[in-house]
Amino acid sequence: MTTLYLVRHGETEDNVNKIMQGQTQGRLTENGREQARVLSLQMQDEKIDAFLSSDLRRSFETCEIIARPHGLPVVSTPLLRERDWGSFTGRYIPDLQDAPWTDDIETMGEMRERASRFLQFVRREYPDKKVLAVGHGIINKVIQSVFFRKPVHEVERMMNCEVRILNL
Predict the structure, then answer these.
(1) Which pLDDT band, with edges at 50, 70 and 90, does 63 fall under?
(2) Which residues, in sequence order, are CB contacts of 20 under 8 Å at separation 6+?
(3) Overall average pLDDT of the 51-73 stretch
(4) In angstroms, rounded to a whole number, what is the distance separating the alpha carbons of residues 87 and 85?
(5) If pLDDT is split at 50, 70 and 90, which confidence band does 140 have?
(6) Concatenated DSSP letters of the chain
(7) How are beta strands 163-167 and 3-8 bridged, if at all?
């Protein structure tokens, strides 16, 4: 059985400013780096065989900090990218509450397909291993939704640097 430690990246400047980040690179705040350092200390005695990350900077930097005590490289994958928010990207989130959705926003079906491919990838490439993967709030919810076979709205929101364990 493969154990997946699914992690959300540390706090970013856009999280603090309520900006829709989507697939932008993002920048960790000093608090976000500290969240990653705290998680790194919590995970340092856990035997982790591989570290995976979204290819977006905010997740990759978080994963590098967590992986440092293990001396292992971080492998990036676009499968863990956050939802593509299209024309909503970069906008102030409270202003979007009643905005009509545009056709350039990644659909839930597309996200579920990507989440399924991520889970298949981990099972195939890391059988019987312990894998820590750093993603983003929404893609992590969708991964859990696919894994547990339940609607996305029934998956609790992840906080920055929170870990959820999935036994694949």
Answers:
(1) very high
(2) 14, 85, 88, 89, 90, 91, 92, 93, 96
(3) 98
(4) 6
(5) very high
(6) --EEEEEEPPPBHHHHHTB--TTS---B-HHHHHHHHHHHHHHTTS---EEEEESSHHHHHHHHHHHGGGT-PEEEEGGGPPP--GGGTTSBGGGGTTPPPPTTSPPHHHHHHHHHHHHHHHHHHSTT-EEEEEE-HHHHHHHHHHHHTS-GGGSPPPPTT-EEEEE-
(7) antiparallel
